[in-house]
Amino acid sequence: MKTNRVIHGDALTELQKLPAGVVQAIIADPPYFNVLEDEAWDTQWKTAADYLAWCDGWVAESMRVLRDDGLAFIFGQLGKREHTFLHLMSRLSQQHQFHDLIIWDRAVGYDERRDSFTPQYEMVLVLRKGDSVKFNKDTVRIPYDATTIEAYMKDNRYKDKEARRKHLEKGKYATNILRVPSLKGISKEKCGHPSQKPLALIEKLIACSTDAGDLVLDPFLGSGTTAAAAKKLKRKWLGIEKDSSYIKIARKRLLSITAPSSKSSIKNRKSSIP
């Protein structure tokens, strides 16, 4: 099977053409259903029931192509009064094995509301296929800054100072609340897609769930963030995209991405949180 390519077509149709059990991780950022109300691709279903039935199909095919130790990351968001993703998470967790729920803390709020808190997060439902999964927590450690390390080194409970320093220099494990700033209009990373995810966020998901050479699939490639992250991290990738204009953006973007010769910086630079 040819990899590292963009497939122009419908997600469900193209997923059905792929062999079973070949993908190590799936990063899916599908339409959210009536959340981005100005986008035709997010408002194409007449009812929530229609949308949920559509999701049943592409998720089932995604899980079919997933390896037994693989993970599927499915993004979702609640709209101003739209809560279909809550029903989708419940529905998919009954049809497939639930693994985790990640909260993407966007760092800043959006769409100010007068009668409720300003929303600042999106969700990532994580599904698994088998009883054990490939997962490497060390790849998403959050480094402590030098000042914090020195402060913790003064803790007299730890007698082996060398071992303590090595432990601190590795950083702390990331939680399932991932704080990665969302992309602003002036961001150099912005490519023209209204729901584009930060490269740093997708890198974290790929790094913790795959090894170099593993295959990553994105059924809704959009502007190509998953492919770009996979290429940077030396993973194989496949992307499916229906919109030809987004395909042009993704292909142009991928031409500028080169795999690093040293470790990819997928971690936050500093943290003072123990």
UniProtKB/TrEMBL annotation:
Pfam families, per the entry: N6_N4_Mtase (PF01555)
Record carries keyword Transferase: yes
Protein EC: 2.1.1.-
Keywords recorded for this protein, A-Z: Methyltransferase, Transferase
EC category: transferase
UniProt keyword Transferase, yes or no: yes
Chain ranges of the DNA methylase N-4/N-6 domain: 23-251
PROSITE patterns the UniProt entry points to: N6_MTASE
Segments crossing the lipid bilayer: none
Classification via InterPro entries: DNA_methylase_N4/N6, DNA_methylase_N6_adenine_CS, RM_Methyltransferase, SAM-dependent_MTases_sf
Stated family: Belongs to the N(4)/N(6)-methyltransferase family.
Name of the featured protein: Methyltransferase
